[in-house]
Amino acid sequence: MSQAKEESGSKRGQGMSDVSQQFKPAEQGEKKPKRSPLWGALKGTFTIEPGWDITKPALDPEELADWEASLDRKADLYEKGLTRKS
Questions:
Q1: If you average pLDDT over residues 56-80, what whole number do you get?
Q2: Structure pTM?
Q3: What is the DSSP string of 3-54?
Protein backbone atom coordinates (compact mmCIF):
# COMPACT_ATOMS: atom_id res chain seq x y z
CA MET A 1 0.00 0.00 0.00
CA SER A 2 2.82 2.42 0.74
CA GLN A 3 4.23 1.77 -2.72
CA ALA A 4 0.90 2.81 -4.33
CA LYS A 5 0.86 6.02 -2.29
CA GLU A 6 4.41 6.86 -3.37
CA GLU A 7 3.61 6.28 -7.05
CA SER A 8 0.44 8.35 -6.95
CA GLY A 9 2.21 11.07 -4.98
CA SER A 10 4.97 11.32 -7.54
CA LYS A 11 2.43 11.77 -10.33
CA ARG A 12 0.65 14.50 -8.41
CA GLY A 13 3.92 16.35 -7.95
CA GLN A 14 4.31 16.79 -11.71
CA GLY A 15 0.79 18.05 -12.31
CA MET A 16 -1.57 16.60 -14.87
CA SER A 17 1.19 15.62 -17.28
CA ASP A 18 2.83 12.22 -16.83
CA VAL A 19 6.08 13.42 -18.36
CA SER A 20 7.52 16.77 -17.40
CA GLN A 21 8.30 19.06 -20.32
CA GLN A 22 10.50 22.10 -20.22
CA PHE A 23 10.48 25.19 -22.42
CA LYS A 24 13.10 24.96 -25.12
CA PRO A 25 14.19 28.31 -26.61
CA ALA A 26 14.84 28.56 -30.34
CA GLU A 27 18.35 27.80 -31.46
CA GLN A 28 20.51 30.73 -32.51
CA GLY A 29 20.81 29.47 -36.10
CA GLU A 30 17.08 28.93 -36.63
CA LYS A 31 15.33 31.49 -38.81
CA LYS A 32 12.04 32.97 -37.66
CA PRO A 33 9.43 33.84 -40.28
CA LYS A 34 9.29 37.58 -40.82
CA ARG A 35 5.52 37.66 -41.26
CA SER A 36 2.48 35.45 -41.07
CA PRO A 37 1.84 32.96 -43.88
CA LEU A 38 -1.66 34.45 -44.09
CA TRP A 39 -0.16 37.68 -45.36
CA GLY A 40 -1.23 37.86 -48.99
CA ALA A 41 -3.68 34.97 -48.72
CA LEU A 42 -6.29 36.90 -50.72
CA LYS A 43 -3.83 38.03 -53.38
CA GLY A 44 -5.44 37.89 -56.80
CA THR A 45 -8.99 37.30 -55.54
CA PHE A 46 -10.23 40.66 -56.84
CA THR A 47 -9.05 43.33 -59.22
CA ILE A 48 -9.75 47.03 -59.61
CA GLU A 49 -10.76 47.98 -63.11
CA PRO A 50 -8.44 50.40 -64.89
CA GLY A 51 -9.80 53.93 -64.74
CA TRP A 52 -11.79 53.34 -61.53
CA ASP A 53 -11.26 56.15 -59.01
CA ILE A 54 -10.61 54.45 -55.68
CA THR A 55 -10.58 57.81 -53.88
CA LYS A 56 -14.20 58.53 -54.88
CA PRO A 57 -16.67 58.32 -51.96
CA ALA A 58 -18.76 55.15 -51.94
CA LEU A 59 -22.04 57.03 -51.48
CA ASP A 60 -23.41 60.10 -53.24
CA PRO A 61 -24.13 63.09 -50.95
CA GLU A 62 -27.90 62.32 -51.10
CA GLU A 63 -27.37 58.65 -50.21
CA LEU A 64 -25.07 59.64 -47.37
CA ALA A 65 -27.66 62.07 -45.99
CA ASP A 66 -30.34 59.35 -46.12
CA TRP A 67 -27.98 56.92 -44.39
CA GLU A 68 -27.20 59.38 -41.59
CA ALA A 69 -30.89 60.30 -41.13
CA SER A 70 -31.79 56.62 -40.81
CA LEU A 71 -28.99 56.14 -38.30
CA ASP A 72 -30.20 59.11 -36.26
CA ARG A 73 -33.78 57.73 -36.24
CA LYS A 74 -32.55 54.35 -35.02
CA ALA A 75 -30.45 55.99 -32.30
CA ASP A 76 -33.48 57.97 -31.12
CA LEU A 77 -35.60 54.80 -30.98
CA TYR A 78 -32.93 52.98 -28.96
CA GLU A 79 -32.63 55.90 -26.57
CA LYS A 80 -36.42 55.99 -26.08
CA GLY A 81 -36.42 52.28 -25.37
CA LEU A 82 -33.66 52.61 -22.79
CA THR A 83 -35.30 55.51 -20.95
CA ARG A 84 -38.79 53.97 -20.95
CA LYS A 85 -39.60 52.45 -17.58
CA SER A 86 -41.27 49.05 -17.54
A1: 93
A2: 0.36
A3: HHHHHHHHHHHH-S-SS-----PPPTTPPPPSS-TTTTTTTTS--PPTT--T
